[in-house]
Structures are given as C-alpha cells and as structure tokens.
Amino acid sequence: MAVAAAPLTQAKKKEIGQSYWDLVWYRFKKNRLGVLGAILLIALYGSFVALPEVISPYALENRSNFVEAPPTAIRLIDEKGQLRAPFIYGLERKIDPVRRLRTWELDTDRKYPVRLFMQGDEYKLFGLIPMNIHLFGIEADQSEQRIFLLGSDALGRDYFTRIMYGGRLSLMIGLLGQFLTLVLGTTLGVISGYYGGAVDMFVQRFTEFLSAFPNIPLFMALSAAIPVFWPPTAVYFMLTIILAFLGWGGLARQVRGLILSLREREYALAAKSFGASDWRIMFRHLLPGTMSHVIVIATLSIPGMILAETALSWLGLGLRPPLTSWGTLLQDAATIRAIRFTPWLLWVVPPILLTILTYNMLGDGLRDALDPYSGR
Amino acid sequence: MENAQTLAGQTFVNPSMDSRPTLLEVRDLKVEFNIRGGVIKAVDGLTFDIKRGQTVGIIGESGCGKSVTARAILRMIPKPGRITGGQILYYRYSRYPDRDGAKKDVEVIDLTTLDPDGELIRQIRGGEIAMIFQEPMSSLTPVYTAGTHLNEAITLHRLLPIKRLGDQMVEAITKYRRVTKEEARQIAIEMLRRVGIPKPEQRVDSYPHQLSGGQRQRVMIAIALSTEPYMLIADEPTTALDVSIEAQILDIMRELQQTANMAIMFITHNLGVIASMADEIVVMYMGKQVERAKVVDLFYHPKHPYTQALLQSVPRLGPKTGARLASIEGMVPDPLNLPTGCVFHPRCPAFMPGKCDKLIPSWNKVGENHWARCLLYEE
Q1: How far is CA A71 from the centre of its chain?
Q2: Residue range A200-247, pLDDT digits in tens
Q3: N or C: which end of chain B has fewer CB within 10 A?
Q4: String of DSSP letters for A68-84
Q5: Chain B positions touching chain A (beta carbons under 8 Å)
Q6: Would you call A20 an interface residue with chain B, using a CB distance cutoff of 8 Å?
Q7: Which residue segments constitute the domains of chain B, with CATH numbers given?
C-alpha cells in the first residue's frame, strides 16, 4: 500500500470537503434580500470610499461664487421644445429687493452640455495615481458656470461632492470602529468565558460598568477630552477608538456566553489532552464556533457605529471641519434657516438611511444563512 | 458478549512480562471534589503500575472514578477537583535529548507536582501520554478537517532528526527539527491508512460531519498515535460504537500496540472487551480499588465479592436456562454519604455483620500478583 498521495485538484477537494462556509454561501445565495443588501453595500463602499474623487465633479474644498445655489437640473429638452444632448442652463445671480434675498435664476440663453469623463480638478486615485478625469462635468470654465447636482453650500462648494467625500469618513468609521470592537470584544469575551472565575468576574463587571453609564454624556466627555489642536486625522482615529471602546461590551458578553458552553465540549478536552496550549484552545478551537454569531452581531451593529458618529458630529463633538463626514454635513443642515432657504442640504439623509438599511438587509441574510438550526 | 469459552481460546501474554521496565506508577492516589454538599472522594488510595507495552484495564461502574484517574494522570481534573494525596510517577524515556535537555535516559517525574498549565505537562500530554475519549462524535473540532487535527498534534509533538550527509553515525543523532506542513500531511495520511480508513488521501480533507462515528473514532486514534506516545489512555473508546466497529477498533489498537510497544490504560465497563485486551486489571468501586490481578486470575478466580458479582452479571450465550440475569443487590451509595467500614458492605452477598460495617478493609495480597481489599482475606 505504497500509493503516494496524489495532489488533489481544487475541484476534487471541493467535492470532498464541503465546508461550513460552502454551506453558508449556498444558503446565503438563496436569500434575495440579503444578496441585494450585499450588492448595494459593495456599490456604496465602492463609490463612497474608493471612488468619490472620480464620481464627484469637483474637488472637496473647491469654492466658488455660486453661494447656496439650488440643485441644477440636467435637461434633455430646451426652451423651444427640442430634444438635444443633456445640457444645463446657466445660472444668473439676482437680488430680490423686497425680500432682501440673493436668488439664482436660470439664464436660458446660456447652455452648457453635460459630458461624461470630463477633465477637471486634479486628484490622486487611491491616494497614488494622479488623475484629473471626473465621471461627469460640463463644458465650461469653472468661474463661468458649474454643475450642482444637489445644490451648493454657503461657501459655494458642490454639495454632491461633499456628500460623496463625507461618505468615506462615515462609512470607514463604522467599519474601523466595528473592527476594533470585534477584536476587543471577542478577545475579552473568549478569555472571560474560558478562564471563568476572577478573570470573568473582572471583565463582566467592567462591561456592566461601561454600559451603566449614560451613553451620550460619556461620549461627550470622551470626545471633549480630545485636544483641539490635534490634527484632524488623529481626531478621527481617536473617535474611532472611543466608539469601539464603548461598543465592545455587548459583543464580549455574547461571545463569553457561547464560549461557556463550547468549552465544555469534548473537543476542547481532546485538544487539551493532546497538549494544546490554552491560547490555542481558545482561539483555534473555540473561537471559530462563535464566528457565525459574531459576524451577524458585527454586521448588525455597524449601523449603530455610523449613527453614533453622525450624532456626535452633529452635536459638534465628533469630527470637526475641515473633516467632512455625513455628521458634519448634517450639522450645516440643522438650522431653521437652512431648512427654509437651502432645503437641498438635507440630501445627506438618504445615503445614511440607505447605508443603514443595506446593513440590516445583509445582517438578516447572514443570520439566516449562518444559523445551522434554520431550515435549509 | 465474551464469556469463559472465548476467554479460554485466547492466548495471554506470559506473566513474565512483569520484567518489562515500568512506565507509570500510581501510588496511593487520592482525588477529591470539594462541592457545596461536602467532599467527594472520587479516587481514594489507588495503586497500580503500568509497564512499557502492557495493557492495564480499569473496570467499574459509572462514577467509580475511572475517568477521574485518567484525567489525574494528565493533570486535567475539572474545576472543583484536586489531587489531595499520593504520587503519579512517570518514567520519562527521553526521546529528543537535545530538546528536553535531559542528562539521563530515564527521568522519574512525579506528575502530581507539575504545574497543570506548564510546558512540561503539555509536552507529555499528547506527545508521550495520549488519550482518546468515549465520544468520537464530539471529540473533533467541527470546523477543522481530519488532516488539520492530525497536523496540529504532529507539528506540536513530532520532531524529525536532522541527517547530515556523509554522517556515518546515524545513532548519534542529536539534532532535531520541526516537521514541515507537507511532511505532516504525509504522516497524517499514513496514520489514517494505518487505522484502516479507506482512501486516506481524500479522507484527510474531510470534515468531522462527513465521517461516520467509527471513522471519527479511528481519526481520534490516528491523532493519538501520530505522535508515537509511550502510553495511550483509552477512556471507554468503544462505548458509542456498534459491536462490529468496536471489534475493528480494538483490533487496530492491539495491532498498533504491538508494533509500537505502547502501553495502554484501558478504561471500560465492558467486561468482554477488557478480557480480550488487558494483561492486568484493576477493579474500582466508589473510588476505591477493590481488586487487582492478572486478567486470567481475575476472570477465573475473582476474590472480591464485588468482582464476583460483577462477573456473574454478564449475560452468557448458550442453551436457554430460564434463569434471571444475576444483578448486584441494592443501589450505588451516595458519594457524599459513603457507608462506614467497607463501602461495598450494604450490597455485599458475603456481608459479615459487626465486621464489614465497622472495619475498613486493607489491601491484602491474596495470590501471586493478586490483591483484594476485603475483610474475608484478612487475618
């Protein structure tokens, strides 16, 4: 019986070893809402995190004289009722002497065609490749006319551009914060559940201590502790850490509960009897058993992170200008004046809603796919 | 079920095997569990030894302390329990002198004094004393393939000699290296083949849920043996299996024992299995060792009333007699409220009033290599 083990082809391996994750993928694929959530989420992260420079027509801090201009309509039919290639009308600044207001009116004599892949402001793709191609733009000098898909703000910056860039920070803080939460929560949960006794006591009381604090005041205190003179990126990471620090307790508890039952399984004992170290038993043999729960909890709590950032920034305690996040954008939209005269500033709300909805869709899909006890 | 007829057909190892070197010596071991209701003496004064290549069977009812003894040897007693007395002397034959830094060939280690989470006990666990469990269904981590489990044990415990080219003195190898992943995989496949798993090249990539109960137990045995241990503790390894698989597993264990000169401590409550496997048997009752003898002596000339009753309660194949199956009278006593005197006296057919319920029997030699703890044999 000296048959050498033939190297298995990938297809053959697949046939023999239909792993847990193969089964999960099979079940997940059947859940349409979950798949839709996943696709939307990939699209959201692709456009808001990876490619905002390309999709938005201007650079983030590109100001103009077009202050508080309303959203520009892209037209296909001109004033004579004729069909033409997509274009926009020029904007003309008017003063309303009665209401003492600055208004913007359409100048139908000036027409600017809208083109795809226009050259414009310089940027670096993924922070590396210098480029100046934007997904769309108008054929006009920047000082003469601009395109504001969602209007402009008080400094004449394109609000669409700002929402695109703001998504990068808001979406990443959710992901980064959740990642830190995951590392903290699972590690402490596993240690607490596996060792039990005094360690468990300490970790559990600490999480209770944290969760007993009223959330918003604690957030406020911690964010107020970030020095004002810190560079914006440092503030950003501090905020991520604060969010993670306050969020790991629930996860740690759930992981602990699962480990408490898993550590009594025979395979934990078997691993020990073969000389495996505690560390190895905890993280190689027991932790994978909790993964399905952890993934679902993590997915479903990322929206919370994003909302927490938004809320904090809205209160003026989270990210501060010049950092642009959905929270700081909301802050601009939070006055009566803004709602009365520049209601387009509320366009930041739909992307927030969409993100949270897609996360929930994905999370529900994952929960159904990962639960071994749900019907196949 | 095995009976006297099949027993007679077996050839037994010559009693002169006692001249083999000792591997493990348990001396007056005591394990106690301090629980709320009081102290449970799970093991109370256990003494036996295991020679290299010998099979020692430990039998007794559920809860008599068999498994606790096994766990005590590997220092894996669950939480409230602890070793309160005695010694477990392990004669450590140095395998990798280079790594272990041992000066002598044999080093005697008292396992009861080791740190249960220490480096040394972890080298011994699995590497030198391996253990297989009763429940093959749950002894493998469900997220890993059979091969992953084997690799883990092999890379943790096996070292390979470094052979230098032109080196004539092969015996003088002193340098060892860790097993590479590819080598570990080859060893894993070879081990699976040895325990009789068909198509081991494919099965090595199977997950536990894709294997049958018998296959899983074979994988467990393969893991245990992949590190070439000196001793295997088999804690009711065939309880969860059906009889045909049980017979195969036992054959594999016997075969591998002979090729590797490995000692086996076989824990079971199945008298048929133990009769065909063991050289020597220790009978336990309520944490106490009641009898210890060579397998033939024990089965043909049991001395302790408990052993006698136990043997009579084995159903026998043969012409229909219409007789009821003999059973031991009474119930297993509450471990927190053990009877006075001899713990077996309330159920004992040879109960001597005024003696058995007052005096604690001592460990008496009742024959050549035969001991019993009973007042019948006391002067």
Answers
A1: 25
A2: 899 899 888 888 878 778 777 877 788 878 877 788 788 888 888 877
A3: C
A4: TPPPPPPEEE-TTS-EE
A5: 74, 76, 117, 122-127, 130-131, 133, 135, 138-143, 145, 152-153, 156-157, 185-186, 189, 193, 200-207, 210, 220, 223-224, 227
A6: yes
A7: 1-128+231-317+325-336 (3.40.50.300), 143-226 (no CATH)
